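Sample entry was shown:
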Amino acid sequence: MWTVSQMLKEPVVWWGFLLLIALSISIKTPEAIQAALAIQKNGLGYTARQWQESESIAFVGSLANNVNIYSNGVDVLGFLAEKQAQGIPIKMSLTTRVENFYYDEELESMCKDISENRALLVYFKQITWRWYLPSQEEIESTCHLPVLQRFADGTVYGEK
């Protein structure tokens, strides 16, 4: 803009540009401050209060390392509870949206592992953005698993 204002011999172009920048910044500043305060108060991502205070994660963290765990939050358990877990079967591919033709078999295999081998299923309520996974209701109606623990943020299925 400096070059354009010099070529046109119109300094008002440069000053108008600076005014536009200042206006844009001042319009977004209150929103940025509110976002920063919310992050400071509640955290963001894995540091969010919902994860740091999770009863389900605390429960999983107290389990022995040899327990086979299935979950809709494998990443969360690995990072926060430091436990390896297997994902529950996907209904369709996240990227291609192609149906998982082995879904029923994989779900049945998971249910059998939980019932027969004392594996556990940890289902987090707050993970709702993973639309490609079965809902808690779908799993309950298919697997008929006993509830080991019910927490405010999730449910653990299986037997200890």
